[in-house]
Amino acid sequence: MLSNTFQIVVLLLGASAIALLGTTPASAQSSFGRVSVKPAFELDGVGQDIDTITFWETPDPEQTLLFVSAKASQLVEVWKFPFVGNEQAPLRHSSFGSGTRVNGVIFDQEKDRLYVATSKPASTVSVFSFPGGIFEREFIQGAHDLRSEPNLDLYFGNNGERRAYVTADNIVYVYNAETGEALFDFKPTTSVETVIADEFYDLLYIPDEKTGKGIFVFNPDGTPHSRNGQDHFGGGGIFDSDEEGLLLYTYPSDGSSDDGSGFIVVSDQKSDQTDFEFFDRQTWEHLGALNVDDVSNTDGIASTQRSLPGYPLGLFVCINNDGTTVGVGWDVILEATGLGPEDRGTGATISGKIQVANSTQSVDNATVRLVQSGQVRLETRSVADGSYELRNIPAAVYDLVASKPGFADSSQPVSVSEGQNLTNQNLQLAPLADVTPPAPPKNVQATSEQNN
């Protein structure tokens, strides 16, 4: 096994670290406590008992569409920018069935498709192409009981596969989003409604809807994902009611790319005033709670980070008490919370490339970690050209470790001082086929010969 080991000494303040068990890392972002903001608008559409929200980010921002599912009306509300006073004809279709609840909606921005999850007795996912809202196909079609409030998210794997993760109370069904082929299913140990995929880290986040245990983390294959023995975050009394809506905000703020940092927002569905709980995406640390004036009992939340006229950093939208959809500009929220890509701490930066051993061939999607005493402190992925960057490293001694399936792990040390920018911290990964296994002990070989 290839292992170049030397120590990383990082003498810094400020931190961006993967959540730990037994230690509490400093967050990459500053905690903000509790803040309140005023809504920019409120939409009251044709639907009753509305639940889930998604955006279509059209090439022309002024053509942006907002979709809102309406459980009691078996339809999807459609709103066109600037949204206020601009409700379009709702989306209705025979695939939604009768006596059902149209609940989950998610938009595939690359393929311009809207996916709609409908409850039993239809228990199906309908797919519509845009512009036009033309019905393409459906899948599941009663093959599973999707219960009363199915929801879904899309995941785009590194191999080009597009998956739909469809929730049904206590189970998640996984389908090929292109072909409708059933792939597998898994059962979280929690009550489930919402799920969101983090493709940068290849993770799924699933809030525990009923018991307040927090947000559980899974690998794309449905197995629990554990960092330092911890497979969830946000427990310990942070949530007072159902953990419902869920979104991922990525940096940079314009949504043009994803550098692995940002935050996760989860709605705490309190009947008097919804708390929108913020968690650091990298550390899973709780950052604070946001209240939107007069918003309560929130189910779905959604976000667009594209600049829109009047909303330079995009929009945050949420359901208010099953009846209306409320919007707030992200510029307002970031100012109130103090969050934003400039809030990254003052620590050092380590960057480099991951390559195949004894070559200049790049290794993309390798996991690069800072490890201290067996605990992961910070984690990122290499991109297409093999490059990676780790930011805001806390004061400590580390191993810098790179890994990827099919390769032997590699590690190496670096010493940095406060505020230093260390470049060219390159690691090489040897394909496992090139690693010579150790010879068996002589007594084992002799025993084998005797048995022959």
Summarize the structure.
The chain is mostly beta strands and 452 residues long. Helices cover 4% and strands 41% of the residues.
Oligomer: single chain
CATH architecture descriptor name of the largest domain: 6 Propeller
User: Stretches where pLDDT falls below 50 for ≥5 residues?
Assistant: 1-26, 443-452
> How would you sum up the global shape?
globular
Structural domain tally: 2
Mean pLDDT across every amino acid position = 87
User: How many beta-strand runs?
Assistant: 35
CATH class of the largest domain: Mainly Beta
Assign a percent range to the helix content.
Answer: under 10%
The major β-sheet equals: 6 strands, mixed
Number of helices: 2
The amount of beta strand, in percent, is: 35-45%
N- to C-terminal distance: 30 Å
Radius of gyration: 24 Å
CATH-defined fold name of the largest domain: Neuraminidase
CATH superfamily grouping of the largest domain: TolB, C-terminal domain
Helical/strand content category: mainly beta
Description:
The chain has 452 residues and is mainly beta. It has two domains: 8-16 and 345-433, Immunoglobulin-like, CATH 2.60.40.1120; 33-337, TolB, C-terminal domain (Neuraminidase), CATH 2.120.10.30. Helix content is 4%, strand content 41%. It has two helices and 35 strands. Strands 1, 28, 29, 31, 32 and 33 form a six-stranded mixed β-sheet that branches. It has a five-stranded mixed β-sheet with strand order 2-23-22-21-20, covered by helices on one side. The protein is globular. Residues 1-26 and 443-452 have low confidence and may be disordered.
Provide the fold topology.
Blueprint: E1 8-10, E2 33-37, E3 41-43, E4 50-56, E5 65-70, E6 75-80, E7 87-91, E8 102-108, E9 113-118, E10 124-129, E11 134-139, E12 151-156, E13 162-167, E14 172-176, E15 182-186, E16 196-198, E17 203-207, E18 215-218, E19 232-233, E20 243-250, E21 262-268, E22 275-280, E23 286-292, E24 301-304, E25 315-320, E26 324-329, H1 330-337, E27 348-356, E28 367-372, E29 375-381, E30 387-393, E31 396-403, E32 410-412, E33 415-416, E34 421-422, E35 427-429, H2 442-451
Parallel strand pairs: 1-33, 2-23, 27-34, 27-35
Antiparallel strand pairs: 1-31, 3-26, 4-5, 5-6, 6-7, 8-9, 9-10, 10-11, 12-13, 13-14, 14-15, 16-17, 17-18, 18-19, 20-21, 21-22, 22-23, 24-25, 25-26, 27-30, 28-29, 28-31, 31-32
